[in-house]
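Hi R.,

Here are the chain sequences for the assembly we discussed:
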Amino acid sequence: MVAMAWPTASGLPPRAMVLGAVGICVVLTAALSMLELGRGGFLASLGRLFEYVGNIVAAPDWEYAPTVAWKMLETVEMAFLGTALAVVMSLPLGLLAARNSAPHPAVSHTMRAIMTTIRSLPELMWALFFVTAVGLGPLPGVAAIALVSIGYLGKFLAEAIEAVPDAAVEGVVVHGANRMQVRFYALMPQAWPDFIAVTFYVFEHNVRAATVLGIVGAGGIGYDMTMAMRLFRYDRLALILLAIYLAVTILDRLSDRIRARVI
Amino acid sequence: MSDLSSLPRKPINVFPLWLAALAALFVVATRDLEIDFRALAWGVADMGEFLGRFGTPDFSRLGRYLTLMGETVAMGLWGTALAFLGAFAIAPFAARNLSPHPLVYRIARELLNFLRAMPDLLFAMVFVAAMGLGPLPGVLAIGMHVTGFLGKVFAENLERVDPGAYEAVRASGAGFLQTVMWAGWPSVLQETVGYTIFILDRNVRMAAILGLVGAGGIGFEIKTTMGLFQYDRAAALILVVGTTILAIDYLSVWARRKVR
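And here is the predicted structure of the full complex:
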């Protein structure tokens, strides 16, 4: 018999850990009563799920493949446009939001508050608003992606600018640079690589977000997916899911490569 | 002066080239999607009018809203718990220095990649179609997608562990499971718990959205009220969601500081 003991004085697990684990179990059990389970309970639901997935993978409609490819390309284009717009717009906004480059502390606080508000709602909610404003199509989707991305990119740029060491700023100041020149020749060049790296992550996220915006009519492959599900076209659904998986995976790997080169 | 060697060739600045390529891509994509950005400017007035309808939140059914918010938080909690268990089971196989076989490593990695690539909303749509409306498909959707995320992060944490920790346990005759349980997880416990708390915050947000496709929670009510043009009720619901998310945000920052 091997004596098993924790590396504590008493040989028992640390009290904080036990209490934490018990607390989590209690909370989860209490939460369970709020989630009424589906008809016939959990196992029956799982059975239906397997049946459904079996339907999906049964026989893809390969003649639909070119259409799916085009729709997927459109979705990626939406993500690209949204990200590009956000990059351009978050440059000035990030400069205004960083404490060390804002013209006045009040400006920096206001900008940060605006960005936090933007980030508190996900793309899908903003897309809902934009669809009511400009109608169905990819434009509200691009606008929603751009808006949320500004919230993230602006915040990251501001943080990157604030992290620039004072030495870089002093080096430019002693040569007689004014405040604008400090921003362009000391702060931006130092913050740039971090900003680019984050931009790639945001783009990857946006591709994923763009695939679901179609649910509220904001363009992209999500609309075709909703339609395929409503019409029970399982053969098309399989291709759409495959296209999303392939596009996201390929873009992830590609952007990993490019990012490794840039930095 | 003349015997000074000429300066080395100036490196080509590729930045303008990249910029031009991206600008060209921008134009091509705009054309392809037939987007007219001026429509945004025209739509601003409509949007202002639309947002104005949310100006008078109606809290008369606050009790029901709070129950729904509770359900949403419960979905987030259970989704996180499922994802944690899934990641806990898969991550050791997806860590290069722990995995029993390179092939197992590849399969585990690809599985995590697949789960990560599919947004939770897509999972939720499929699950709702298969299992019917309700919170269960939402919980499963969050669990599946976040398993991919947590699994990748956990696996990378396990890969960063000092090789000595694994060697020490293996040298005393530990097998795969024993190495994972006695050297792997104890070494990364803090990061693991910290990241799980971090993701919980995101999962509650997501649970509030999943209702849009019928996967339970407060999002379904938001969708219904908006569909019935009851904007004052929708405004109250959105305020309830916003306040809860803010509270959980602070709670999660506090909890993560505690763990560290």
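The mean pLDDT of chain B is 86. The CA atoms of residues 139 and 153 of chain B lie 21 Å apart.

Let me know if anything looks off.

Best,
T.
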